[in-house]
Amino acid sequence: MSTLDRFASEKLAALEFASLRRAPLATDRSAFPTVSRDGRRLVSFSCNDYLGLAIDPRVAAAAKAALDAYGLGAGGSRLVSGEHPLYAALESRLAAMKKTDGACVFGSGYLANIGVIGALASPDDLLLIDELAHNCLHAGATLSRAAIRRFRHNDADQVAQLLGSARADHRHAFVVTETVFSMDGDRAPLSTLADAAARHDAWLVSDDAHGFGVVEGGDAIIPVQLGTLSKSVGAYGGYCCASEPVCALLKSRARPLMFSTALPPAVLAGAVAALDIMAAHPDLTAAPLRKARLFTELLGLPLAESAIVPLILGAPGEALAASAALAEAGFLVTAIRPPTVPPGTARLRFAFSALHDDRDIERLAAVLRTTSGVAHALERWRMAPCPAYS
Ligand SMILES: *Cc1c(COP(=O)(O)O)cnc(C)c1O
Predict the structure, then answer these.
(1) CA atoms within 13 A on the CB side of 49
(2) What DSSP string describes 187-256?
(3) Which of 35, 137, 265, 307 could pair with 288 in a Cys bridge, judged by C-beta atoms 3.0 to 4.6 Å apart?
(4) pLDDT in tens, 308-343
């Protein structure tokens, strides 16, 4: 065995031992919310397709028409090869929905986050970032080489205190958070954070990956609004909505936009069609939160704040066992383990979609009540809604 292969094998064995090994499993989700895996059909509560637009025939038809008209690839980066006119159509819709003057689309949400923070922040600057913010926000912060201070989850008082003590030592300061936290489903105290930021001339940056199209958004108090086109929009890509000069600066300086190929025209066309459906159907965008709240009501849990409901189990092995028990009962609820979540907080994460049938949610709640290892976690959470971080 080569030294490289031995290195990889030993790493894998250590991950396996800690119940932290992962591998993608072939899954057909064309009939979402029912998915097929290994010849078995499961109702999935592990997809971010909150509005079902990823499999919507109208969205697929728009993408197919663009595919037929323009072919598959973009041919180069937006700046070098020139961009498809669908970019302007997509960006104007995003700006309108977010109530900003401008928008800048990136290759993915991950690229948008590292690109925007990297373009705006430099080593002289201060970045305050919520400890539970998504990996790509931390990655962007690290790439910028700014001074990074993590603040306690959703603790606006600590943000004010850190700004008070450290802001004067830096040229610019940023407060970085998520509108809806991807693994916890709770929301950031945006207006309190915006007040603290404004008092110290710091700029608030919020990633709305799990809020867009699900909870009220588009807020002038957030000057830099990041997000993705791959969750509620059901397509692919990322965006930053901000003022005209900020977006122009991003198009001129953000590395993932400069040095990476533009999105395929068919993806842009699909995203435009999906945004039009979202804008025209408030009943559709209200559905995921309603479904999540049905679930939390059925289990006597605190009312869901978003389409995401976590159930913290603790050890990775416990989360895997609970996930396997739910699969036996016909549900796909993938275990979420470190490093996606902090050590000791492995969990089941339930994501609700407009396409879920209320009866499946009722059946899921009933199964959870009788799944070994889960009843105790439910009880703990009823007593203390945020056990891992309080
Ligand atoms: C999913 C996610 C991203 C990444 O978006 P992609 O378009 O999938 O790359 C970024 N931020 C948060 C908070 C996310 O949950």
Answers:
(1) 21
(2) B--HHHHHHHHHHTTEEEEEE-TTTTTTS----TT-SEEEEESSSTT-S--EEEEE-HHHHHHHHHH-HH
(3) 307
(4) 999 999 999 999 999 999 999 999 999 999 999 999
The verdict on whether 134 is a catalytic residue reads yes
Alpha carbons 13 and 3: distance in angstroms, whole number: 15
Sheet holding 34-37, edge to edge: 34-37, 40-44, 331-332
Tell me if 292 sits within 8 A of 352, measured CB to CB: yes
Q: How far apart are CA 53 and CA 273, in angstroms?
A: 9
Whether 374 contacts 368, CB under 8 Å: yes
Distance in Å from the first CA to the final CA of the chain: 47
Query: Which residue, by CA, sits nearest to atom 7 of ligand 1?
Result: 109
> Residues 217, 96, 128, 171: is their CA dihedral positive or negative?
negative
Cα distances (angstroms) measured from residue 143 to each of 108, 112, 136, 254 = 17, 13, 10, 12
Active-site residue identified among 138, 200, 231, 251: 231
Contact call for residues 223 and 190 (beta carbons, < 8 A): no
Tell me, what's the pLDDT at 390?
Answer: 37
Ligand 1 atom nearest residue 230's Cα: 7
Give SS3 for 376. Answer: helix
CB atoms near residue 345 (< 10 Å): 23
Q: pLDDT over 70 for what percent of the chain?
A: 98
Rounded to an integer, what is the distance from CA 334 to the centroid of its chain? 16
pLDDT of residue 263 exceeding 90: yes
Which residue's CA is minimally distant from atom 8 of ligand 1?
109
DSSP category for residue 169: G
Query: 308 forms bridges with which residues in the sheet?
Result: 351
The answer to whether residues 161 and 280 touch, using CB atoms and an 8 Å cutoff, is no
Whole-number Å distance, alpha carbon 211 to ligand 1 midpoint, is 11
Residues 6+ apart with CB under 8 A from 368: 299, 311, 326, 374, 378
